[in-house]
Specification:
It is a single chain. By secondary structure, this protein is an alpha/beta fold. It has nine helices and 14 strands. The strands form two sheets. It has a seven-stranded mixed β-sheet with strand order 2-3-1-4-7-6-5. The chain has a seven-stranded mixed β-sheet with strand order 10-9-8-11-12-14-13. Helix 3 runs parallel beside helix 4.
Length: about 375
């Protein structure tokens, strides 16, 4: 099977996590982090299989060629004469997506029209009877270097929870949820109780169960020039979920989460309850470490009265009071927090990174409770009491 270069598109800031996830599934791979993505060279059939196992990328592109280009006639020539049949089903129509930065060719509509006309000329020369189905063709210009890529994913990869899924008021994309669960578990092994004090539609719980599972998503064999798609085998999991504990103040949203997680009830013990986290009392001690994951309101669609910084500090204290977690992972709006966040006693930052959520800059914080720290593979975090 011939080698091919694949590009995994991710939210900026998640590149290292995506590379780590790829190494987990394909240990022999050598991913290279780029801004907004990860590139990797793999056998074609193995690269196409990534759509069925990776949870953090939003889309996976197959890079087929690169060339210097400063005018439209050359772009037309390169696309119309390229041997597309070596990579894809030449009977497919193409849907062209364009990006351009620091390039002489920067009129996106003209680039798109040129690419479409050139591909049609390629098909006309072959006398192809076209199918109704389409392939995404990505034309990217950067500093006069043109990269042509084929979309191996089809529908965006975050749409993976199956038909009939309901969403809440402020839904979180599955790819971001998977990134936060991966962050929460980094370096840990054992059995855990996962707590989401503001669970919404239950996305964190769904992603926690899917993290090391193979998804049934791949129509690549009909679209690409391959006889088979390589089988993927789940990595050996170092963790086991003993229980999911979720709270949501809105009763209708609790029912949404219960509906979304109904099929997973046989896999893990669940308590999905109506409750305001700020009104809860301490939970009984757990037999295993508790891990908390939370995407609290940003003060946008769900309004917060008073200082948002004080709101988050109250939330941290309440999480410690109610659950005394081993670790806690939060996604907070970057530009709305002025100054350092005061943390509960024994909480320290283990990791933080910036990304985007719905176009808003956010920071993901991973806190560790040193009083509950054990069975970790990681070195001790730096000594800091505040974020």
């Amino acid at each position: 099977m011939k080698l091919a270069e694949f590009y995994l598109i991710v939210n900026p800031g998640l590149e290292a996590l995506a590379a780590q996830e790829l190494k987990l599934w394909i240990p022999q791979s050598q991913p290279k982090e780029e801004f907004g993505g990860v590139s990797v060279t793999l056998p074609l059939d193995q690269g196409l299989s990534l759509n069925s196992c990776l949870k953090i990328p939003t889309r996976i592109l197959l890079r087929v060629t690169q060339f210097r280009c400063r005018d439209f006639p050359k772009l037309f020539q390169k696309i119309s004469q390229f041997p597309w049949q070596d990579w894809m089903n030449p009977k497919l129509q193409v849907q062209v997506h364009v990006s351009s930065s620091k390039s002489r060719l920067n009129i996106k509509k003209r680039i798109q029209a040129t690419a479409e006309e050139a591909f049609q000329k390629f098909q006309k020369k072959r006398n192809e009877i076209l199918l109704d189905d389409k392939m995404g063709l990505y034309v990217r210009f950067h500093e006069d270097l043109c990269t042509l890529s084929l979309d191996s994913s089809g529908e965006r990869l975050h749409k993976r929870s199956g038909e009939g899924k309901h969403i809440g008021v402020a839904p979180l994309r599955e790819t971001l949820a998977a990134a936060m669960i991966s962050t929460l578990l980094d370096g840990l092994k054992g059995r855990f109780e996962l707590v989401d004090p503001m669970m919404g539609s239950g996305t964190f719980f769904s992603e926690a169960l899917l993290l090391h599972e193979v998804l049934k998503k791949s129509d690549s064999i009909q679209k690409f020039n391959v006889s088979k798609i390589a089988s993927v085998h789940p990595p050996e999991s170092q963790h086991h979920w003993l229980k999911f504990l979720g709270y949501e103040y809105d009763e209708a949203t609790v029912k949404v989460a219960q509906h979304n997680l109904k099929e997973q009830e046989a896999l893990v013990s669940m308590e999905l309850l109506k409750g305001d986290v700020f009104e809860l009392g301490p939970r009984p001690a757990s037999t295993v470490d508790r891990l908390v994951v939370c995407n609290p309101p940003y003060g946008e669609r769900i309004k917060i009265s008073g200082s948002i910084k004080f709101y988050y500090e109250r939330l941290f204290q309440q999480i410690e009071l109610c659950f005394s977690p081993r670790r806690a992972c939060f996604m907070l709006p970057t530009n709305k927090i002025k100054g350092r966040l005061s943390l509960p006693k024994d909480w320290q930052i283990l990791k933080k990174f910036k990304t985007t959520n719905g176009g808003l800059s956010v920071t993901v914080y991973l806190f560790e409770n040193l009083a509950n720290r054990k069975n970790s593979w990681l070195p001790s975090p730096p000594s800091k009491d505040e974020a």
